[in-house]
Design a protein that fits this description.
single chain, 124 residues, mainly alpha, 49% helix, elongated
């Protein structure tokens, strides 16, 4: 894939957030299901790999960027109910809050860049 358009990246991020929210909601709804193990999506950084996104130093006075190594943190199951259920509600609710923050940030980026485009086109 060639250079991605910013709006394509933002749309991909919003779709990922929506899919992750669905998975987290399933985990929470199965918190009392015997033997249920929580699921999660691959981190968004894995999705970004398809876009070939890397920081670029555009001015010698700027600090050089770095691309993350792609290493992901595996989350170990730390709680398990006597019936084998491994859903930690605190962990799942933290993911809900993270999703909400990511959605707000992505929406704000969309709005900001759309405003810049409208200004550049003389409509703002």
């Amino acid at each position: 894939m060639s250079e991605p358009a910013l709006f394509d990246l933002l749309e991909t991020k919003m779709n990922w957030i929506s899919a992750r929210q669905h998975v987290v909601a399933q985990n929470i709804s199965n918190a009392d299901t015997p033997g249920y193990r929580p699921k999660d999506l691959a981190p968004f950084s894995a999705v970004l790999d398809q876009f070939n996104v890397a920081p670029v130093q555009t001015n010698p006075m700027h600090l050089a960027g770095y691309a993350p190594s792609g290493a992901t943190r595996q989350q170990a199951i730390t709680e398990r109910a006597p019936d084998g259920n491994a859903v930690g509600l605190e962990n799942q609710l933290t993911k809900v809050a993270d999703n909400e923050n990511m959605q707000a940030m992505t929406g704000n980026l969309w709005k900001t860049y759309m405003g810049m485009f409208m200004t550049a086109l003389g409509h703002g």
